[in-house]
Specification:
The protein has 161 residues and is mainly α. It folds into three domains: 54 residues, no CATH class; 46 residues, no CATH class; 53 residues, no CATH class. The protein is 51% helix and 0% strand. It is built from eight helices and no strands. The radius of gyration is 34 Å and the shape is elongated.
């Protein structure tokens, strides 16, 4: 049985179920939208889907076209390099390249360590500096200061009783 991730990613990419392009095409007032809507075949290279719907290279160069003509003949006439280039016309990656491990784990571990470090800095900051302490007593915090009263009355603060 295939993992759910493989099936989901393949279906989403092939059908464009969840994507901006599908929403954009449905709500566009500009006529024809050139985004694929799922009815077009897409190249999808994954080890769970060994034969993609389309070849990797759609437009062939003159050298590749002659190689494709040579492919129709006996395969004993083809060299190893010809067979490899024919494979590269049809597929982007080999199974060995698809099975190669990615370095995504380094990004995940690095992000987790940065998050833990920032959290540790915040905890340390709270322990060192503690909570915010008011420097003005509570019974004075409800009244405006002398400076505010003087600016409202346009007088010097020394004239306020």
């Amino acid at each position: 049985m295939l993992p759910a991730f493989c099936l989901r990613s393949a279906l989403l990419q092939r059908w464009r179920i969840l994507g901006i392009s599908g929403v954009r095409a449905a709500h566009s007032h500009e006529g024809q939208v050139s985004h694929p809507d799922g009815s077009e075949l897409l190249y999808f290279d994954h080890r769970s889907f060994p034969l993609p719907d389309l070849p990797f290279q759609k437009k062939l160069s003159s050298q590749q076209a002659t190689l494709k003509e040579k492919e129709r003949g006996p395969w004993k006439d083809l060299t190893q390099e010809d067979k490899i280039s024919l494979y590269r016309i049809k597929f982007n990656k080999t199974y060995a390249e698809m099975n190669q491990p990615t370095n995504e784990w380094k990004t995940v571990i690095g992000s987790v360590l940065i998050f833990i470090g920032l959290t540790g800095l915040i905890v340390w900051w709270q322990r060192v500096y503690g909570e915010y302490v008011l420097t003005q007593p509570d019974h004075l915090s409800h009244f405006p200061s002398k400076y505010l009263l003087s600016s409202i009355q346009f007088t010097h603060p020394s004239h306020i009783p």
